[in-house]
Amino acid sequence: MKLSIIGGAGTLGASAGFFVAQKNLVDEVCLIDIKENVAKSHELDMEQALIKCSDVKVSSGSFQKLEGSDIVVISAGIPQQKVSSRLQYLDGNLKIIKEISDNLNTYTNNPIVITMTSPVDILNVYLNKNTHIDSNRLLGYSYNDTYRFKWAIANVLDVDFNDIEAYVLGEHGETQCPIYSNIKIKGKKINLTNENRPKIDDMVKNWWSNYQSLNSGRASGWLSGTSIAHIVYTIVNDTDEVIPFSVIDEDGVSIGTPIQVNKNGIKEIIEIETTEEEKINLNISKASIMEQLIYAQQLNVSVE
After folding, report:
1. Which end of the chain offers a freer environment for a tag, N or C, measured as fewer CB atoms within 10 Å?
2. CB atoms within 10 A of CB 177
3. Shared domain check, 135 and 9
């Protein structure tokens, strides 16, 4: 199995490639980037770093190296900057995704595509409209929202992260919807106190604002990298784990949804019990994405 990472010279791409290779999850990891010299330097470095623990072949190059890819991760985008909303990346990243979609059509044969480039929901719709790839194989990466939600729960409740089942659905952005009504610890549903819920909210929201305030010019590569490796493990081994992705719904909108995935893409969409308030919030989130799609149509590169 071959995994290709478009944007493989960047923070997200390189870390994802390394973690996947380190865990021996595929036969080949290919780092694709317009900065071919940087991607090549990662290839040479990883080859030596992995020799004691992995049999995975690491390669690099231009879009032509997409040939034979079973899974493609898209992490390419305009440089990271201090933003108040991921939507601020839309104009620049749409142009990049247009070039990527053209090359996916030229060099690939219906791979699973995991899009990490922001704004994920809008760009996943663009790929759905402008590539030959089946919609059930287009996965928008939104897992960091759920991961940080669980991280906050673990810290506030002082419980093991691995014992927590919880999900953030909806937009990968400002209207994301943490599902508080269905948090489980060791399989048992819990009710948060009026004191704990605001603490969890604050931890998640403050993390994002604090990270943005650093204006470091880098994305959260370590978390995203190790999470991509976990997702690839889930796909390759058909584990039936429920993971939220932004996926194309019956209205053609890409929105965070709990699913199971395998080598064929979406295996099953999972129904999560929610309250009426959460259902309303999810509808608001979907409306927000639809508004963003209208805005995207006004840009030079349309999602039509």
Report:
1. C
2. 24
3. yes
For the record, the structure tokens of 135 come out as: 């919609």
Nearest to 2 by CA among 69, 72, 58: 69
Helices assigned H by DSSP within the chain:
11-22, 36-50, 90-107, 120-130, 143-157, 196-213, 221-237, 276-297
Query: For 87, how many CA atoms within 13 A lie in the half-sphere containing its CB?
Result: 16
CA pair distance 135, 132, nearest whole angstrom: 9
Are residues 134 and 156 located together in one domain of the fold?
Answer: no
**What one-letter code names the amino acid at 141?**
Y
| Each residue's pLDDT tens digit, 268-288 | 999 999 999 999 999 999 999
* Domain region containing 288: 143-297
Other CB atoms within a 10 A radius of the CB of residue 161 amount to: 11
For residue 224, how far is the Cα from the chain centroid? 8
Cβ-based burial of 94 (10 A; exposed 0-12, middle 13-18, buried ≥19): buried
Q: Rounded to two decimals, what is the model's pTM? A: 0.93
Q: β-strand 2-6 against 254-262: which pairing, if any? A: unpaired
210-266: per-residue pLDDT in tens? 877 787 777 778 999 999 999 999 999 999 999 999 999 999 999 999 999 999 999
Q: Rounded distance, CA 44 to CA 39, Å?
A: 9
Backbone conformation region of residue 262, classed left if phi is above 0, alpha if psi is from -120 to 50, else beta? beta
Decide: 144 and 230 in contact? Cβ < 8 Å.
no
Q: In the chain, pLDDT over 70 holds for what percent of residues?
A: 95
Residue after which a domain boundary falls, among 83, 106, 141: 141
| Count: domains in the chain | 2
Of 115, 141, 167, the domain-final residue = 141
